[in-house]
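Extended Data, panel c. Modelled sequence:
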Amino acid sequence: MASSTLHFFFYLSLLLPSTLTTATRDTCATAAPDGSDDLSIIPVNARCSPFAANPTSTSVMDTVLHMASADSRRLTYLSSLVADRPNRTSVPIASANQLLHTGNYVVRARLGTPPQLMFMVLDTSNDAVWLPCTGCSGCSTAANAAYFNPNSSSTYSTVSCSTAQCMQARGLTCPSSTTPSVCSFNQSYGGGSSFSASLVQDTLTLASDVISNFTFGCINSASGNSLPPQGLMGLGRGPTSLISQTTSLYSGVFSYCLPSFRSFYFSGSLKLGPMGQPRSIRYTPLLRSAHRPSLYYVNLTGVSVGPTQIPVDPTYLTFDSNSGAGTIIDSGTVITRFVQPVYEAIRDEFRKQVRGPFSSLGAFDTCFAADSDNLAPKVTLHMTSLDLKLPVENTLIHSSAGTLACLSMAGIPLNANAALNVIANLQQQNLRILFDVPNSRLGIATEACN
């Protein structure tokens, strides 16, 4: 029986010394020294990522600013999930809003028989599992685009229109004839684009674990703007995500540890299954919204800046299952966002404790001379049964020259849902974040992910 726990390692090497690149195994290789697949998880801007044209050309600050520039669209996507009431039984090919994803981390996964190497974005707030397939008309023509070739797999199969799974789909284009046909969809995509896809099944291989009849969307054609070049591997709680489809193998448990952007050699891990998870870890309840059951909510009760707990109207933090208001933990947003009154209270107290003057840079509105960063207070997120005191490196981001430091949090943009706070990946770095879905709890432990 295959192991029920997988360790996925990802690396980011921004300035590799030549002695290491020539004398040691290539960290970007898809196979470990023993010949097994290492299934590395890679930051999308890393040296090992096929989606980064030149990962050494920008500073850490520039990289974060570039990634954070997509946060506004990400937050609009998350707010649309809260604002709308989707069909809980929707299939992997979802509506326009549900398809939007931000590729901060990609995983090497293998589909088909023999296995085909695919790069797929990991997303905790998405249930979709999909890939552009070969022959897709209008899909990305970039050299790094990931295409799955159904004709090269002996275990590939389509899902019939006659199945219950197909009948649950939106955008269904199955003919009314009694002849069995492929479950097909026409869907809109953000910005006036659209695509057509088929619901299919094939073998998914994760290290030594072989998952038969894994269901995903196979995109066949697109119009308008090109689809992103990566596939998508959703880790949400919906019925079609990786976690839900592998419950019998991984028991609905997974965790990850994201490394700091400041390290030249990034290494972190994603673990699937209850085995190998940390024993010493603190838990807070994992909440579920009836309005959007796939998102991972926690009960944020307050925020402290240094020794001062900021005064906040509880209504800005209170979890509301029916409306979807509250706080989620998300892998696809770069910097933590609070509703505007909460962020302004955090920012104002932070400024009181740090010497100014202050300036703005990109998404950051509280930047100051780095020689004052020793005065920067720690920010603590208070959750039910758990106080998460963020290290300074999870609170500040520095310029490449080291002369400027910025508070790496922001308010929710005006065009996004004003009732949703998001704990983002920059604030999760060097922490083991464990999602125990069956027991409705989220665990957090300090871990040196570098």
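The helical segments are 18-23, 60-68, 71-83, 96-99, 164-167, 242-245, 247-250, 340-353. This feature is highlighted in the accompanying rendering.
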